[in-house]
Amino acid sequence: MTPERLALCVGLGFAFGIIPSLGTTTILCTFTAFLCRLNLAAMLAANYLVYPIQLALLIPFIRGGEWLFGAEPLNLSTESIRQMMRDDLLKTVVSLAPTMIHALLVWLSVAPVVVALIFFVMKPLLRKLRLERLALES
After folding, report:
1. Full-model pTM
2. Domain of 113, in residue numbers
3. For residue 112, with 0-12 CB atoms within 10 Å meaning exposed, 13-18 middle and 19 or more buried, which class applies?
């Protein structure tokens, strides 16, 4: 695998890893890896490493979507969400759908920048590591 393709795998794995939609990252990485003929293991490693960041960015993505689309801010306390789910799960899912779509749209605007930054930072580092490895093998 070339340093460029490996850097792309890591960048995509990271970007998919921070998507504000829990439980979808592995599927997205797998689909993208097979579609683009990328290294699934590298993508999933990056994806799983950023899981804590995904959790940390969930609320900022939601708040960013509310701000961007002028939506009414939701009470996102654990207790209020638990109560909403106890009262009416289907109504909760339906009422949270626009919020999650807004958060995904914010993520879509951030993800290409994340991939590009990681790609352009990692590519020269991976090239250097590859050259050093080749020199050691010679």
Report:
1. 0.85
2. 3-137
3. exposed
Burial class (CB in 10 A: 0-12, 13-18, 19+), 85: middle
SS3 for 48? helix
pLDDT digits (tens, 9 = 90+) for 54-112: 999 999 999 999 999 999 998 888 888 888 888 988 888 888 899 999 999 999 999 99
Q: How many structural domains is the chain composed of?
A: 1
Q: Rounded CA gap, 18 and 111, in Å?
A: 9
Put residue 37 in one of left, alpha, beta given phi > 0 → left and psi -120 to 50 → alpha.
Answer: left
CA 61 to chain centre: 11
Identify the DSSP state of 71: P
Q: Give per-residue burial for 11-31: e unless 16+ CB within 10 Å, then b.
A: bbbbbbbbbbbeeebeebbee
Cα distance between residue 3 and residue 131, in whole Å: 10
